[in-house]
Amino acid sequence: LLLLTVAMQTFQGKIFRPAVLGYCTTRGLMALPVLGRAAAGRRLRRSTALAALISLSGLLAWLVGRSFVTLPQQSTLTPQQAVSHRDHLTRLQATKKELAKKKQKLSLSEALERQKAKKAEQDDKKEDAKLAPEQLFWEGPPSSTELFVPFLGCFLVLGIIPFITATNRQFRVNYKITDRRVSVSGGWDGKDVTEFSYQEIYEMKYGVRWLGYCADMRIDLRDGAKVEVFGLLNFEDNYEYIYSRCDKDARRRSDLPPRERFK
User: How do strand 201-209 and strand 192-197 relate by DSSP bridges?
Assistant: First the structure.
């Protein structure tokens, strides 16, 4: 019982472990002759066999505890130092919470200020647009290069209809870019007109044709509508002009101008 008590106290970290290891090892070695006599067939008294069994059990228990049990580390701080350390941690946590609250307040105030500034900028643009007369930047039909492939298809019977359609587009479709809006007119009679301002543009994507001579462009509006512009001439200047008049979010989502994208 004394040996088991020593082993339990060792698990709790209350006794110096090397001394206990030496004690248990000694008791275990003392039990070896007893076990040798038992192996030779001699009869042992119950008290001797019990003492040998307890000694070996204590040694085995200490080894198992040394291998699998992690002894808790006792703090070397005095009670006053422990209290001051705990108060310091409490103050640090309170400081972090206050900083987080201040940061959240600042972020909300900054967001409101940015929204007000953006709204004021849009209002100024609207006022300037109302006062200043509309100026035309570029106007023209689609590129005539879209007739090339349908013309070659005329040598086959199936290529005549695409050639007629492309020829009609040269006379009916017209693109118009001003400082206020973009206008696309089309249809068989040329009376289907689609107009939108630069504030309505959500994003723009394009693909160049004929080594940059013209390009096809898709403009997505904020209401979900999509406007497709095929064979736009003077594409680099026209796209840069439209790109510069869009807001920051639309420019971030759109493709870069060709001079910046392919440089």
Answer: unpaired
Q: For residues 145 and 214, is the Cβ–Cβ distance under 8 A?
A: yes
CA gap 33, 110 in Å, rounded: 85
Cross-strand partners of 205: 218
**Tens-level pLDDT at each residue, the chain (263 residues):** 444 554 555 544 444 455 555 555 565 556 556 555 655 555 555 556 666 666 666 666 666 555 544 444 455 556 666 666 677 778 778 787 777 776 666 566 777 787 888 787 777 766 665 656 889 999 999 998 888 888 888 887 777 888 888 888 888 999 999 999 999 998 877 788 999 999 999 999 999 998 888 999 999 999 999 999 999 999 999 999 999 999 999 999 999 999 888 77
Nearest to 140 by CA among 173, 167, 165, 164: 173
Task: Kindly state the helix (H) or strand (E) to which residue 205 belongs, with its residue range.
Answer: strand 201-209
Residue-wise over 105-131: b if at least 16 C-beta within 10 A, else e? Answer: eeeeeeeeeeeeeeeeeeeebeeebee
Phi, psi of 228, deg, nearest 5:
-110, 130
Integer Cα distance of 220 and 201 in angstroms: 6
Query: Which is nearest to 182 in space by CA: 134, 143, 133?
Result: 134
Which single residue is written with the structure tokens 């973009």? 182
DSSP codes of every residue in 17-86:
HHHHHHHHHHHHHHHHHHHHHHHTT----HHHHHHHHHHHHHHHHHHHHHHHPPPPPPP---HHHHHHHH
Tell me the CA distances in angstroms from 229 to 116, 129, 195, 211, 238, one per residue in order.
34, 25, 12, 17, 12
User: Is residue 205 within 8 Å of 255, Cβ to Cβ?
Assistant: yes
